[in-house]
Amino acid sequence: RIKQAVRERDYLRPGARELLAFCKRRNIITIIASGNLVPVLELFQAELGADYVVGSRPKMSGSVIESISEADYSGRDFKVNDARAILESRGIGAKELAAGQVAAIGDSRADAGLFQLVTPGPRIAINPRGGIEEFADYVIQDDLNKAVEILENLP
User: Fold this and answer.
1) Which of 39, 96, 137, 155 is 20 to 30 A away from residue 103, measured at CA?
2) Exposed, middle or buried: residue 66 (CB in 10 Å: 0-12, 13-18, 19+)?
3) DSSP letter at 12?
4) How much is the pTM?
5) CA–CA distance, 77 with 136 (Å, rounded to integer)
6) What pLDDT does residue 71 have?
7) What does the DSSP assignment read for the chain?
């Protein structure tokens, strides 16, 4: 049912396809990090061509979710911990992070760890809520095409 609902409705933010296409053209590694379920995120990963997804991993029986609990996340800071592990597996460590070679885009306070990880940024808050804009270098509204413009104009 989840696949059908995703196919029937466009849940993506405006500009999401363009942002991921921009990243692909520039050979930029993309990670979709969300509190959502990995099976749902994998649908978006396939549609957008993202390299990785980070999310909750419920107990599954085939394509049926049996249960989901706090244990299905890899800890309170699962987004930042899992993203760091992915980056390190690709040879991106503290040196590259300190040089501003990694960007983060987020919309809620749950993304603060990612924003702190990629300091000095760029860190882009879209439709911010919960105070995430305190950690952002840029704040945009509604359209991820604005993130493409920011990334294109970086030194």
Assistant:
1) 39
2) exposed
3) S
4) 0.82
5) 18
6) 58
7) -HHHHHHHS--SPTTHHHHHHHHHHTT---EEEEEEEHHHHHHHHHHHT-SEEEEE--EEETTEEEE--GGGSSSTTHHHHHHHHHHHHTT--HHHHHTT---EEESSGGGHHHHHHTTTS-EEEES--TTGGGG-SEEE-S-THHHHHHHHT--
